[in-house]
Design goal:
25% helix; single chain; alpha+beta; 3 helices; 5-stranded mixed β-sheet
Length: 114
């Protein structure tokens, strides 16, 4: 560790700061264990700084199951597009935790089902 690193306080969240997100995982599994298995990431919301649970799935049908089960209205879905592809995002609060469900590499034509 150099002098600059030692002088700069660590502002990254601790595991304890994300405890509420960890606590919701068993409830999510118990209630929705029948849904397609997502990739799970615990992170910090880029604007609000609060911990969030990110669920990423491999297909549009799997994403739609999660969106419908978490009762995110279709009108609140965000389509993100870039030169590298597109992705759909649905977010809600579940048991006091911000949950974001995404599916990546969706071709824009596939989003007409919403």
């Amino acid at each position: 560790m150099n002098a600059r690193e030692a002088a700069t306080p660590n502002t990254a969240p601790s595991m304890d700061d994300q405890a509420q997100v960890f606590a919701v995982l068993p409830t999510l599994r118990k209630l929705f264990g029948h849904l397609p298995a997502p990739y799970i990431t615990i992170s910090r919301h880029f604007q609000r700084g609060e911990p969030q649970l990110d669920l990423s799935v491999d297909s549009l049908p799997a994403w739609e199951e999660w969106r419908a089960t978490l009762a995110v209205p279709a009108g609140e879905v965000t389509l993100h597009q870039s030169s590298h592809g597109a992705w759909l995002e649905a977010s809600t609060v579940f048991c006091g935790v911000l949950v974001m469900v995404t599916v990546h590499l969706v071709r824009p034509a596939e989003t007409g089902a919403l």
